């Protein structure tokens, strides 16, 4: 079919035409994202976590699984806010460098363990966002049902046992929770999120940090009021309807009494948390009166 130049121009400019809408692709075309684009996505996510204060100095690490046996990952000893495509390493699932001249992240074992255990995971982000990390340092899981977005996206977030960075201890501590969760608080360390792509993992990190921040602030205002089990169930219905993928504790058959069904060390001790916060508030108020 021959289309006149004028008609072609008119179609091109008409915003109502489907081909002019963002993300449109010709019928039958399949979206192929180049490896270079995925490296750029890692760099963008690195910039975001650095600019948001989720990592300091050279902290944090990001990876994307590009096929069954290859993973792109951030290098060690580099600020995640200032990466360039040549710094991104390609490794196999055993951690062997396939291409790239930079040394892969020292936390690579943690990323690879996740990919080996969960086929649906295509990206992993590790950072130290201050509020979420404060919960992890104080020894609390994020287990309250207080915000719809957090409940739909993550459910409760477990606190996994402390492990020395770069060793097998962290992957081992995460494993019991991995089948049913996409976000983890790493005791005395930071947070880990997994996703269907690198932005999906980043957004879970943002949701986790926002949830932790609001939870702490609500406690300072007298306590977070939890949603009822009925309302939580309705949110789960919303999650089902939206077809949200990934692990979620409320949609997982956790065996009663298993480690994975427990939010983690130090939790459930609400009295300790309440006492600590009210003590701090009292001290701050007394300070102001002086
Ligand atoms: Zn770390």
Write a compact overview of the structure shown.
The protein has helices spanning 5-13, 35-51, 108-117, 130-138, 148-153, 169-174, 198-220, 229-242, 270-289, and strands spanning 61-67, 70-73, 89-92, 97-99, 123-127, 159-160, 183-186, 190-195. With 290 residues, the chain is an alpha+beta fold.
List the helices and strands and how they pair.
Blueprint: H1 5-13, H2 35-51, E1 61-67, E2 70-73, E3 89-92, E4 97-99, H3 108-117, E5 123-127, H4 130-138, H5 148-153, E6 159-160, H6 169-174, E7 183-186, E8 190-195, H7 198-220, H8 229-242, H9 270-289
Parallel strand pairs: 6-7
Antiparallel strand pairs: 1-2, 1-5, 2-3, 3-4, 5-8, 7-8
Helix pairs in contact: 4-7
The structure holds zinc ion.
Zinc ion binds at residues 59, 126, 128, 165, 189-190.
Features:
290 residues; alpha+beta; 8-stranded mixed beta sheet; 9 helices; 8 strands; 39% helix; binds zinc ion
In the CATH hierarchy, the architecture is: 3-Layer(aba) Sandwich
Q: Give the % helix.
A: 25-40%
Small molecules bound in the structure, each named once: zinc ion
Order of helices and strands: HHEEEEHEHHEHEEHHH
CATH class: Alpha Beta
Distance between the termini: 84 Å
The CATH superfamily is known as Class II aldolase/adducin N-terminal domain
- Main sheet: strands, sense, barrel: 8 strands, mixed
Tally of structural domains: 1
**Number of H- or I-type helical stretches:** 9
User: Can you tell me the overall shape?
Assistant: globular
C-alpha Rg (nearest Å)? 22 Å
Query: How many strand segments?
Result: 8
Question: Uncertain segments of ≥5 residues (pLDDT<50)?
Answer: none
Derived structural class? alpha+beta
Strand order of the largest sheet: 4-3-2-1-5-8-7-6
β-strand amount: 5-15%
Average pLDDT confidence is 88
Stated plainly, the CATH topology is called L-fuculose-1-phosphate Aldolase
